[in-house]
Amino acid sequence: MPRSLRLYVTGLVALSALALTATSFAFPLQPGIALELDGIGGTSDLELLAGIGFWTVATLVASALPVQMPRGILVTVSIAPIIAATALGGPTAGGWVALIGTTELRELRGRIPWYGTLVNHAALVIPAVVCGLVIEFLRATSDVLVVDFLATVIGAVAYFSLNLLLVSVLIALRTGDRFADLLVADAGGFTASLLALAPLGWLMGRMYSLPGAGWWATLLFALPLYTTRVAYHRFVEMRDMFTQTIGALAEAVDKRDPFTSKHSQRVRAIGVDIGREMRVSPAELEALEWGGLLHDVGKIGVPDNILLKQDRLTREERMVMNAHPVLGAEIIAPVDHLSAELPIIRHHHEWYNGSGYPDRLMGDEIPRLARVLHVADAFEAMTAQRPYRMTPLTPEQALAELRKFAGVQFDPEVVDSFVRTSWARGVHDPGQPDEPRPIQLLAQHGARISQAAPAGPAATDPV
User: Fold this and answer.
1) I need a surface site. Which of 204, 230, 294, 298 has the fewest CB within 10 A?
2) Domain 3-238 falls under CATH 1.10.1760.20
3) Cis before 358 (ω within 30)
C-alpha cells in the first residue's frame, strides 16, 4: 500500500471514530427513533435502542445485494434507511446505523482486508454524522413539514457529496487516476441515487413516526427500494451486454483472418493503458475501449481475396483495403451511443505528418484518441504474425519503430506515454541513453536480435 494511501486510510478511520464518539456524547438519541414496545410507557432507553436496532436491520437488508458499477464501485440502496434513521434520531443514530448496518457478507467471510472494511465504514459514518448535523441545524428554524422535508433532502445532499468526495480521494490514491475525473465520472450516478432515495428515506421516516402506522408500515417501502436496486442491476446488465456484443462483433471480424484473431482485444487493452498514462477522462477511456474493439469493423466489407492475400497488394486492392476506416465509421454511425468512437474508427490510420488515410489529417487535426489507437494498433501488428511478415518483430524492435516514426507517423506524446505502459516496461527504449549492463545480458539481447527478421518499414505497414 502506498504511503499516501496508508496515511489517508489511517486518518479517515481515526476521524470517523472521533466523530462518532464525540457525537454520541454531545447529541443524545432523539425520541423520534424510538420503537414503541407494549407495556412500556413514555420513551425509554430500551425503545430508543430498539429503534436503532430496527433501522440497523433495515440497512443490513438494503446493503445485502450491492450492485457493482462499471468502474468497480459497489452501489446499494442502504442510503434510504440511513437517511430515515438520521432524520428520526439525529446524527448519533445516523452514525451508528451507518457503522453497523452497512456490514456486508463479503466482510464477514473475510473477502475484504480488515483495513478495507474499516475505511469502507469510515467513508459512510462521517457523511452520516454530517448529514445529521445539517438536518438538526436546518430543522431548528421551523417545525413545518416542508422545512422538515427540505432539511432532510439537504442533509442527504451533504451525505452524498461527502461520501463521493471521500471515496474519490481513496480511489485516486489507490489507482493514480485524476481526482477531478473520478469526481465527475461518479457524480451522475450519485445524483440519480440522490433524486430517487433521499425523498424515499424521508417518507420512510415520516411513516415510521406516524400515529397508527409505525415500523410495520415502513416495511411497505421494501418494494420501491428493491425496484431501485433492480434498476441499477438492469443498467449494469445492459452495459455489459452492449460491451459483450461489441466484443463478439470485433471477434467475428478478426476471425476472418487467422492472423488477426484477438487483434482487436489486444489493441483495446494497449490503447486503454496508453490512455491511462495520458490521464484521459473516464469517458475517453471508455471510448478507447469500445473504439479499440471496433476499429477494424470496416474490414467486414473487404473481400477475402484482398484481406487474406499474402502477396503485395496492387494499387486497386490497396484502395479497397484503405477504405475500411470509412466503411467502419459508416457501419457504426447509426448507433447513437457510439458517437464518441466514430472519430477513432475513421481516423486511426491518419499519419502525424498528414500522409495517412482516409482524410490526410495532420498533427492536432487528428482526434487525440485516434492517435492513441494508431500507436496501439501498430505495436500489436508489429509484434504479431501477418501474411506479409511471418516472423513478428520483438518488442524491442517494435518500440524502435515507434521511436523512429514518432513525429512522422505517430504522435510523439503518445509514443512517450506508450513507453510508460506495462507493454513497453522492461523493453530497451531506443529513445533513452543506454545504461551499463552486465555482459551476459548484452549477449542474450544480441542473440534475440540476430534471430529476428530485419525491422524494415514494419511500422508503416497498414493493419
Assistant:
1) 230
2) yes
3) yes
